[in-house]
Amino acid sequence: KQEVTQIPAALSVPEGENLVLNCSFTDSAIYNLQWFRQDPGKGLTSLLLIQSSQREQTSGRLNASLDKSSGRSTLYIAASQPGDSATYLCAASYNTDKLIFGTGTRLQVFP
Amino acid sequence: DGGITQSPKYLFRKEGQNVTLSCEQNLNHDAMYWYRQDPGQGLRLIYYSQIVNDFQKGDIAEGYSVSREKKESFPLTVTSAQKNPTAFYLCASSIDGRGSNYGYTFGSGTRLTVV
Question: What is the per-residue pLDDT across B86-103, written as a single tens digit (0 to 9) for each?
Fold first, then answer.
């Protein structure tokens, strides 16, 4: 069964810290992996997309890595800010025409 | 700007009623999806469509119906057969069915509440 797990479920850090969010997937035959941000009561905003042939993608203070052999992806957030507070979701795409989502990591960055 | 528009933002359903959630995209994407989000659970796929006039059931299709008469539109009907419809509903699209090089784009969601 294709499953995606995110640890930790919640994280609270002081402003300025660098942090890592983890995403694990059981089936390594991944097509691509996408990281999203969700603010309370809102839709999903795409942050980064990593193709199966890639090892990482970067956008500003965000860096996402993909290790298919170990079934893991990480989202690194540098110099965190209160505005980064949100739920972060990872989703794996397989050759089955649908996304498999993790349950998310709820991040709070306090001043 | 291209994107996905979901309406309404909030919807209230009485017992025994059917309600329809709207999803429109101007991204010229072939594939469209409906997901349901419940607190503490991941997003679950209800229905998806890769081409006009064709759609497939997802993991939790019971009590829901869809149509895909136009490329831009993929409305979801929550029928009275859906016994626990209170949830946050998200519509998404992708250029093709596997996210290709651009991934998936999501709308802003509709919160449905049974009253």
Answer: 999 999 999 876 656 678
